[in-house]
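Protocol step 4 of 6: structure prediction from sequence.
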Amino acid sequence: MKLSVVISVVVPVLNEAAGIGATLASLARLRAAGHEVIVADGGSSDGTVALAAAQADAVVAAPRGRARQMNAGAARARGEVLLFLHADTRLPHDAAAQLQRALAAGAHWGRFDLQIEADAAAGRAGHWMFPLVSALINLRSRLSGIATGDQAIFVRTSLFQQLGGYADQPLMEDIELCRRLKALSAAGAPACLRTRVATSGRRWQQHGVWRTIVLMWWLRWRYWRGDSAEALARLYR
């Protein structure tokens, strides 16, 4: 059964051939319900584009950079709501229904709670701290109204266009979008959906949980202090 609000899921990718098939397969139910999936590629060289073309409504080429890619995907979208989904994140089976209810209750934007899961490709088992880290991320987001990209941020298309999309910056584009939405009176408060998306813990497994926690908090603090996203991106890399 089709839902009354069409959702455009925008998936930015760069060399995600190993997992893009599974990600897009998990979105087949949404497409069958009349929603659309747009893959925004930043110049993949591993066959990602060919794999995505078979399971998406559109694959668009964009300049490399998550913000630029998501803006390119959004420009192609026909839905009334945009949902930005990382390539290593899976939506819950009832994501569309949950989002629909939030919109009906008056929300104009929001995000899902997060659950970090082990990534077998990283060659390690899941860390015992994943549930705790997930819970703290969700709590921080609920208290601050700021979401991270792996929480599957969604926003009404008209509102996204009013803001001019994601800021053209190489890091913290999700934080910046939430800041601007919070400052816009027409946007209202974000819907903090308790239904969880599952995101890969590959970054945490590869670089270490404590090291990743310290790095991300340090980068956020410096961004809050006024350091440029360009400078922080160089440190992040």
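Step 5 (inspection) to follow. The CA atoms of residues 182 and 189 lie 7 Å apart.
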